[in-house]
């Protein structure tokens, strides 16, 4: 269990059966762990480890991000409805105990929050902070009920933690780091009046942690009367431990210097017979108590009656109403244990034959580009220069578009720069020129302006349009080579978005493709293309225009030129013109670069394309520096947004359910080797944006804390639709299962009914003519429904709805089918 990137500061099991384990770390993350029952107990040992095999394997279930500093404590509510976390950012975050979505952030404390404890009745949460206060929070509206400060006026800020504890009868809160004058004590706050009138005295240094035994015990006083008491353990910076019965004035256990350093935490076992303690010195001590030392434990029913005076209501468990519900729950357990999905994830051909291009963003900080500053018109006169032959040259001045004066821009000088985009299967890089911004939107009314792009300034001076630029090619080959900006097609003059195109180089090589090219920068000689295999020249061709790009594989080679020409060659060098189909024709990518975000008539850097890929079906994938991923929809003839940084606040953002784990934890896996096309596009779109996306998610949650749940549902629905658009069957099935589990956690009856109805289809005779399609991405919809019903059965509030669809599946099943649904329905009829 090594997901955290820092020291783990707190560990808490969920109440009851201990289904989850919550851990907090100084990496600002709360991790939720669950037992992995799909692997053998001995399967979790690490190679080379001397710790022996794992008895159990626990896997990361959820990663909760929201704190801005160390997480110092976590605490589950009595019924596990909520999980509270506290940190050195002075905040308390309340998470949903089922979905682990953020509910609210409590930020009333003015100092480090170092301890949390829940009221066993479930009405309050208590927190203790370095601001010398204990705050009691109401669960109904998450407002402060009372602030207790008196016992902590002399408290020091030297404690690592201030772990307080609520008594099991609900009547008292034992606090840490309190002082009575100059004497360190554990002050006990009474629930009746929220006054601290009792103190546990006996330590010589500040109290770090207090922990009540989860059970109540009976005792007999000197008069023979039977009473009920609670037991409390106190750990201090003086390395000593005391254990108290709350009806006695002195501790019945006192141990000095149990550790070599301060206490950090205490925890009782559920049976109340053992006390575990840990210290800053790295050791753990276990104290075992005999029944006669503690007394007779009070039965749970009597404890519940004592809590009832504070409003405690024992919530009854929802009972299974039919054998169908019980059988589906059994199926769910069996499917989890056997991990049937592993077979599905062994192979996925959705990314076979993909050719990719990956680039570093020209500005990786771009997320939501702000509107650039508009540069107003600057008056100037025509510029007159003298050429070398003594002739005057007058530089044309833009006068407008015939409709009066028009604002123009004065672009600020940009330093020479170029973005490098690597080509899959290539050892080199493509140097691209700066996008042209010199052509006005509506052209010139009286003068002709060419589309030759201006070279970027070299060494602080502007080179002429035809001058060649020397580029250091030491990283790409020996020596240096010359290059110049390419001449763009006039069609680009009407585009709102200008993209940098490859520079014309004097020499280009693509070793893996066996291609080599020699260009004439002056344009006075043809370009020579050479294809070699194993050192021998296979074919040579000459082209009338300088070559910009080359690529190839075992089946063909492709060359594209400055004049827009594309040449396809067979392995023997024959120009290939057969079986050519255009899936896309002159499709602009301007819509995906968000041109609408920028002010009119002012040039600015838009979002850049950071990733490009072509799938085996010929359709492209693109990712931008704005954290978005797109695919071309052949049927709709539009770009479809597949990945969007808007979903950064979703609980499933950055998760790959097929590959497993977080995408940002799979950095060692090349993008092209990921099992799903959607996962590949997600990883490319979010590459290098972890901090930016996390900041955006935090900003969004600050607007309304409950937004995370809605965004998570929307994100899951988007992922299902995206997998369908990308024709990725494996990812579709896995995201559908995640969505169904989320619906089960939410108990969303309406959405569940709608989904089940979509998968079941018509059950009446003649329903095949209704237009309902029985399959999706090769899966039979009814078989998907059959597999998903057990997942939904994890929430028994849905059992009546699910029963209808179990019966519906039986109605549409073949009489010869020996499905599990048949046996379930038969069992129901017998019942």
Automatic annotation (TrEMBL):
Single GO term (MF): nucleosome binding
GO cellular component terms, A-Z: chromatin; HIR complex; nucleus
Protein location: Nucleus
Annotated SMART domains: WD40
Pfam families listed in its UniProt record: Beta-prop_CAF1B_HIR1, Hira, HIRA_B
Keyword Oxidoreductase: no
Listed Basic and acidic residues bias regions: 469-481
The keyword Transcription appears for this protein: yes
GO-annotated biological processes: chromatin remodeling; DNA-templated transcription; regulation of DNA-templated transcription
WD repeats: 1-36, 64-105, 106-139
Location of region: Disordered: 455-482
Residues in CAF1B/HIR1 beta-propeller domain copies: 3-294
Domain Protein HIRA-like C-terminal: 543-759
Keyword set, alphabetical order: Chromatin regulator, Nucleus, Repeat, Repressor, Transcription, Transcription regulation, WD repeat
Family: Belongs to the WD repeat HIR1 family.
PANTHER family reported for this sequence: MEMBER OF THE HIR1 FAMILY OF WD-REPEAT PROTEINS, PROTEIN HIRA
Function of the protein: Required for replication-independent chromatin assembly and for the periodic repression of histone gene transcription during the cell cycle.
Name the UniProt record assigns to this protein: Protein HIR
Organism per entry: Podila minutissima
Encoding gene, per UniProt annotation: HIR1
